[in-house]
Write a structure and sequence with these properties.
The chain is α/β, with parallel strands linked by helices and about 425 residues long. The chain contains 14 helices and 13 strands. It folds into two domains: about 5-45 and about 305-420, Alpha-Beta Complex (Aspartate Aminotransferase, domain 1); about 60-300, Aspartate Aminotransferase, domain 2 (3-Layer(aba) Sandwich). Helix 5 links the parallel strand 3 (about 125-130) and strand 4 (about 150-155). The chain is globular.
């Protein structure tokens, strides 16, 4: 029954019941963490064969010794792997260290002088479009460069392209857009065919220095037997003459070892040459030994898919538990809505307006840490204070169940408090 349909006395009776349960949780002194989408220890164990896989053999097919300097764009075999993952040519791919975030940061640092020149001429700040809810670390990069962020909402098909097209056509100081096109963080959106086609043409509406930051972080992270397949953005962009606007990213951070993976940046050869020039003063080469380890371990797309099926076997029960707990506790109460993802690492939940931060605070007081309310929006400001990102991947099933038991009580209690205060 919807909570709104209960009488005030019934609401107060239910509030008392939940307060008693909540107080018991507080007395239990739990310490559980659902803040970030980290792989579990069991997931990391799937890649333990990386250790020692080279068996002292450090030569590439062309005889290059990966232990030595040189090769800033990455070893050819790793560039091929990245090209296969991103549907690009090896000549369009750079292989970096364990964090694609570092490549994103450096790409923007590379573009900033050009953008700032226009800023001085126009007396206007550099701006980025941010589909929301989105990935907090993208927003942190923008803040570090004093880039103004503009919120754009999601539709079922992906970001609201009509609004995005109007914005970039009207304001030349909008220089980029953040995208997680497959199993978006945290909303689980995967962009449909029409949306990707419109992204491919976006550079024609914007300027030559506009960049689509296409963070394909969950390209291989499926939770169903029918994985989403994105249209080929780069091929579409080449047809539209906008290939320079596209910059793609991916990494193995949630595939192998989160702290010792490899990352990929893919873009036009013209862009890549300019970015390489930017990197030369700071990097002689990234970790080519680790690149070779990953090539030997992951081999090709078929091997990668088989490896990710092992991840899925560990993750699927956790995502199913979240759905089961939410549905059982609040499914018929009309106080929350949440995603049912086909892949990725998160579940996005919207509370009643104005109480997401209250839910997070209640959970923290009962020993369950959640991502701060508002973190999925630029500047940490959710206009409606509704969105909570749930990250079920890291804890054990047992700990996840305990954390969810606390979470649903906090969710309902905060909702009751709000309804009684109206």
């Amino acid at each position: 029954m919807k909570l709104r349909d209960l009488s005030e006395d019934e609401l107060k009776a239910r509030q008392s019941e939940l307060k008693a349960v909540y107080d018991q949780f507080k007395e239990s002194r739990l310490s559980l963490d659902l803040t970030r989408g980290k792989p579990s220890t069991e997931q990391l164990d799937l890649s333990n064969d990386l250790d020692g896989i080279l068996e002292g053999f450090f030569l590439l097919q062309d005889g290059t010794d990966v232990r030595n300097y040189g090769g800033i764009l990455g070893i050819p075999e790793a560039r091929q792997l990245g090209a296969d993952i991103l549907s690009l040519q090896p000549s369009q791919v750079l292989v970096g260290g364990n964090s694609s975030l570092t490549l994103m940061y450096n790409l923007i640092a590379h573009m900033i002088p050009e953008w700032q020149g226009e800023k001085q001429a126009s007396n206007s700040k550099v701006k980025f479009i941010c589909p929301v809810p989105g990935y907090d670390r993208h927003f942190t990069i923008c803040e570090s460069f004093d880039i103004e962020m503009i919120n754009v909402n999601f539709l079922p098909s992906g970001p609201d392209m009509e609004t995005i097209e109007e914005l970039v056509a009207r304001d030349p100081m909008i220089k980029g857009i953040w995208c997680v096109p497959k199993y978006s963080n945290p909303s689980s959106h995967s962009y449909d065919e029409d949306t990707v086609k419109r992204f491919a043409k976006l550079g024609n509406l914007a300027g030559a220095d506009f960049r689509i930051m296409w963070d394909n972080a969950y390209v291989a992270h499926h939770l169903t037997d029918k994985p989403v397949r994105l249209p080929d953005l780069m091929a579409l962009a080449q047809e539209a003459g906008t290939e320079d606007s596209v910059v793609m990213f991916a990494s193995t951070s949630k595939v192998t070892f989160a702290g010792a993976g490899i990352s990929f940046l893919g873009t036009s050869e013209k862009n890549l040459k300019a970015f390489e020039k930017f990197l030369v003063p700071q990097v002689i080469s990234f970790d080519k030994v680790n690149q070779l380890r990953h090539v030997r371990f992951l081999k090709d797309l078929d091997t990668l898919a088989a490896h990710m099926n092992k991840h899925r076997a560990l993750l699927e029960p956790k995502f199913e538990m979240v759905q089961k707990k939410l549905q059982a506790a609040v499914g018929d109460k009309d106080i929350a809505e949440w995603t049912r993802p086909d892949g990725g690492y998160f579940i996005s939940l919207n509370t009643l307006p104005g109480i997401a931060s209250v839910v997070v605070e209640l959970a923290a007081s009962a020993g369950v840490k959640l991502t701060p309310a508002g973190a999925t929006f630029p500047y940490g400001l959710d206009p409606e204070n509704r969105n909570i990102r749930v990250a079920p991947t890291f804890p054990s099933l047992e700990d996840l169940e305990k954390a969810l038991d606390v979470f649903v009580v906090c969710l309902e209690l905060a909702s009751l408090n709000r309804l009684l205060a109206q």
